[in-house]
Amino acid sequence: MTDFVPFPKIPRLKRGCVITEKIDGTNAQIVIGEDGSIRAGSRNRWITPQDDNYGFAGWVERNKEELLQLGPGQHFGEWWGNGIQRNYGMKEKKFSLFNSGRWSTGRPECCDVVPVLYAGDFTSDTVDTVLAKLIETGSIAAPGFMKPEGIIVFMTASSHLYKVLAENDDKPKGLAA
């Protein structure tokens, strides 16, 4: 006999969502320990200034004192700008935190936050409208840049993220060209 496993609750679809701009850079994280230690990571590995990912670990090291204001925990975001993916016509690089609710205010000055494009009830029409407006008006994160990558839809009831790309959303990664 196996242990009883209950069927999980199913979150409702037509509940809140937050739509942010998807920035085309490289996924990054900062981990701060209870003891004030700080560590940099990419999407899938720890990095150091000697074994870096587009200079992110070096940036974390140089901004350590300010970044400690984030507090203990894992802080995910996008490292983007000059020399990374779309470049966005920038001469510098930026770190934009993903958690727009937590970091809309009170974040370290060296950090940005991904732009919120919509917050409210989910509908697929809303997703399409927000994406179409972003494509028409260009990046909010880098004003004047007219080739934004797309959007991220955060479903509040399930705490899941979904991406919708401005181009080739119907093709698997690697086949988009």
Shape: globular
Average pLDDT across residues?
Answer: 95
Percent of residues in beta strands:
25-35%
Q: What is the helix/strand order? A: EEEEHHEEHEEHEE
Distance between the termini: 51 Å
* CATH architecture tag: 2-Layer Sandwich
Radius of gyration: 18 Å
CATH H-level superfamily title: DNA ligase/mRNA capping enzyme
Low-confidence stretches: none
Number of strands: 10
Whole-number count of domains? 1
CATH fold annotation: D-amino Acid Aminotransferase, Chain A, domain 1
Largest beta sheet, briefly?
6 strands, mixed
Q: What structural class is derived from the secondary structure elements?
A: alpha+beta
Strand order of the largest sheet: 4-3-2-5-6-7
* Helix share bin: 10-25%
Provide the CATH top-level class: Alpha Beta
How many individual helices? 4
Overview of the structural elements:
The protein is α+β, with helices and mostly antiparallel strands. It has one domain (16-165): D-amino Acid Aminotransferase, Chain A, domain 1. It has helices at 56-62, 64-67, 100-103, 124-137, and strands at 16-22, 26-32, 38-42, 46-47, 73-81, 93-97, 111-113, 116-121, 150-155, 160-165. It has a 6-stranded mixed beta sheet with strand order 4-3-2-5-6-7, with helices on one face. Strands 8-1-9-10 form a 4-stranded antiparallel beta sheet, with helices on one face. Helix 3 (100-103) links the parallel strand 6 (93-97) and strand 7. It is globular and about 45 Å long. It starts with 15 loop residues before the first strand and ends in a 12-residue tail after the last strand. The model has no long low-confidence stretch (mean pLDDT 95).
